[in-house]
Automatic annotation (TrEMBL):
<keyword id="KW-0808">Transferase</keyword>
<dbReference type="InterPro" id="IPR000836">
    <property type="entry name" value="PRTase_dom"/>
</dbReference>
<dbReference type="GO" id="GO:0016757">
    <property type="term" value="F:glycosyltransferase activity"/>
</dbReference>
<dbReference type="InterPro" id="IPR029057">
    <property type="entry name" value="PRTase-like"/>
</dbReference>
<keyword id="KW-0328">Glycosyltransferase</keyword>
<protein>
    <submittedName>
        <fullName>Purine phosphoribosyltransferase</fullName>
    </submittedName>
</protein>
């Protein structure tokens, strides 16, 4: 699985569980990992950068600051 950001991790954690139930072996790669906001007992297998900052991606139509 590939995602732009791992924030709380809840969505990716749920998708990984579905992949496992279907007999797959989930592997996650993300651009940005926010360990301080992680709310699940898991983390991405691969990531480019750890950050606590709000990340604005060029493909986002609008960007809101966190809060």
């Amino acid at each position: 699985m590939v995602d732009d950001v791992w924030d709380s991790g809840r969505t990716t954690f749920a998708v990984k569980a579905r992949v496992r139930r279907a007999g797959g072996v989930p592997v996650v790669a993300t651009l940005h990992f926010k360990p301080g906001r992680n709310r699940v007992p898991d983390r991405p297998d691969f990531y480019a950068e750890e950050t606590a900052a709000w990340v604005v991606y060029p493909w986002a139509l609008e960007a809101w600051p966190e809060g």
